[in-house]
């Protein structure tokens, strides 16, 4: 954006209650200083109680990060910040009004989708999700432009983005992590079921495991190196700088790691 003259910041608090939007909060905050453009924000929040042994949360986004954290209680708590930019305050507010937050909630599952308007130009419109979930809820989250961070989930996790990093810590079950332009960092508390599958094209993969955890490793890279350190690892086959198979503590659930441009590191998690 051009910066031909000094720009002074001006903050305006506006209240917008549009019947077309199912937004929990009607507060729109406009900041007219962001690269010479107006910027508007609006909050959206929901709370869900899921029952059953197969409780599941799914979130689909296009622009913006997704953060998943442990809940203190038994409910799923969702907060989203919808942001937009425009040449004027009215344009920024109008962009927010065109975004639709779709929700499909049942007794054991919730599906949320940020539906972006066609032909608006998505660069100026984004949604940042922060979600608190009980540890037993399965998590399936995806975005296109944004990072994903998942903490403390003890059930299965699927995280997918195109342009962004994926980070997971304290995870206790199967994990699928998939990005194109970004790195993947996972720190596990346990490993069950289908194990771990982590794939990226342009980025490194870093996995930390408890010392006693059992896993069967299959790691592949094109431009980079592969290492397994500080764990009881036994290699199977020849093994090369770009291909490594083997067993940790005698073998267990699969640990499948693949990248094209980046390194792969498997090591011991800190106690």
Q: Mind sketching the topology for me?
A:
Layout: E1 11-15, E2 27-34, E3 37-49, E4 56-60, E5 66-70, E6 75-86, H1 89-98, E7 100-105, E8 109-115, E9 125-133, E10 138-142, E11 148-151, E12 157-160, E13 166-171, E14 175-178, E15 184-188, E16 196-199, E17 205-209, E18 215-220, E19 226-228, E20 233-236, E21 243-248, E22 254-258, E23 264-268
Parallel strand pairs: 4-8, 4-10, 5-9, 5-11, 10-12, 11-13, 12-14, 13-15, 14-16, 15-17, 16-22, 17-23, 18-22, 19-23
Antiparallel strand pairs: 1-2, 2-3, 3-6, 6-9, 7-8, 18-21, 20-21
Task: Using brief descriptors, characterize the structure shown.
globular, disordered N terminus, 23 strands, Pectate Lyase C-like, mainly beta, 12-stranded mixed sheet, 271 residues, 11-stranded mixed sheet, 1 helix, 4% helix
Q: What does this molecule look like?
A:
This protein is 4% helix and 50% strand. It has 271 residues and is mainly β. It has a single domain (51-82, 106-268), classed as Pectate Lyase C-like. A hairpin with a 6-residue loop joins strand 20 and strand 21. It is globular. The protein starts with 10 loop residues before the first strand and ends with a strand. Residues 1-27 have low confidence and may be disordered.
